Amino acid sequence: QKEVEQDPGPLSVPEGAIVSLNCTYSNSAFQYFMWYRQYSRKGPELLMYTYSSGNKEDGRFTAQVDKSSKYISLFIRDSQPSDSATYLCAYTGGFKTIFGAGTRLFVKA
Amino acid sequence: DGGITQSPKYLFRKEGQNVTLSCEQNLNHDAMYWYRQDPGQGLRLIYYSQIVNDFQKGDIAEGYSVSREKKESFPLTVTSAQKNPTAFYLCASGPRGQLNEKLFFGSGTQLSVL
Questions:
Q1: Which of A16, A32, B51, B84 is deepest in the core (most CB within 10 A)?
Q2: How far is A83 from chain B (nearest CA, A)?
Q3: Taking the CA of residue A47 as centre, how many other CA atoms within 13 Å lie in the half-sphere pointing to its CB?
Q4: Are A96 and B101 inside 8 Å of each other by CB?
Q5: A109 and A13 in contact (C-beta within 8 Å)?
Q6: CB proximity list for B37: less than 8 A, separation 6 or greater
Q7: How far is B39 from chain A (nearest CA, A)?
Q8: Cβ–Cβ of B99/A93 closer than 8 Å?
Q9: CB B1 within 8 A of CB B69
Q10: Is B88 part of the contact surface with chain A (CB cutoff 8 Å)?
Q11: Which helix (H) or strand (E) holds B76?
């Protein structure tokens, strides 16, 4: 079993749509959950992180963690063409960070 | 501007050759990491360092070597023992040695085999 599973996509949506990106993870000991955005041939940049369960909102982005089902979600409201990128979920505990393979998102104008 | 600088952006390796990827940070971070990214796979940890003159192997360290002589610098050498080196290599740093929920990445180096 992979430590984190993420649908690779691609996911294509029209501008203005609500986007839902999801991951499942296996190690229940890890406490920090993150979403990174990666543009093509660039390094990932941290979008959001949450500690333990619950929701966190930042502008158009909402991160959600459900520890009971080991499910991580990122919602993007009013999606824009500039949101087109690969989104990596990740979680960490101790010295190790585990990354998903990423979901490619295309937002069409 | 604070950040992480990786060089070169593109690198080509001949068979039997060792090549070194540079990573420099001016964020004053203690921890530094090297990851490898292959299509369809998550980032895989090669080596990490929590402090100067100390580093640990990650999940795929075979065929790679590192040094950490200065806080700002963490170069990665891809040796001839690494039989499948073609990948996108990412250097990262974090403000602490553990529980790094905030990693800062460089722009990456694409390594290809001639």
A1: A32
A2: 18
A3: 28
A4: no
A5: no
A6: B43, B44, B87, B88, B89, B90, B108
A7: 8
A8: yes
A9: no
A10: yes
A11: strand B76-78
